[in-house]
Amino acid sequence: MSRLVDKLTKSTRAASQPMGFRTARADREEPKMLVIAGVKLDNTNQIGDYVAGADAVWLRSAKAHLSAKVIQPVIESMPDTPCGVSLEDTGTGNAKALIKAGCDFLVFTDTSPIEAVPAEDEDVGKILQVEPSLEDSMIRVINNLPVDAVLASDSYKANTPLAWHDLMSLQRLGLLLTKPLLVPVPPGISASELKAIWEADVDGVVIVADPSQPDFFKGIRRTISELPPRTAKKHGKSEALLPYTGSAQPTVTPDEEEEEYE
Description:
By secondary structure, the chain is an alpha/beta fold.
């Protein structure tokens, strides 16, 4: 299994555990939200130094397609950190070579060719990137697709504070999806915004890494670790609705109640 997907699964289960079923120590050890560092391969120098604290790294490139030959030494330099790429950065038909190079997860959009995405039995995480504005019915369909997580693109505008409309959009996705939800956020996100996103049932955030801030992700990790337990108000990811098998109870009208006690 993809190491990132494994982390997401454990984190989601920990977040949905009822109170009383886990020890305080176990709660501290399980991350509340995962943090994925977005890294442009134009800044490959000592990537491991400035992504310390991140749970995974998403390798990106703004200039050229990424090949397995290019990403392999980068992945090997961070053996303890799951690394992934976007299919739009690598081109179609290269998935097998990327997996062989050590790629842990692949990000692709709803317009990506089906054949470009590895089969279910391939040992790589599959993250579907979608627009939050999708219709409810389309979002629910994703729950039945062979993907491991969902990335909400353009969750809110860059360089602007999180607005209530943005939060409503994320909350809607969190309510409709049973798969882990990832959201890109700006590096300047505040603790209160992280708390709001956490309450919206977001399972992980993607933040672009800055080589000039080597301790940034350690700080984000501390902020997330201090978040209060998520409010127990949602059931999408934590439990399934079972069909009711009991016999129907007869409806008692007010007149019948009066006659029974006369």
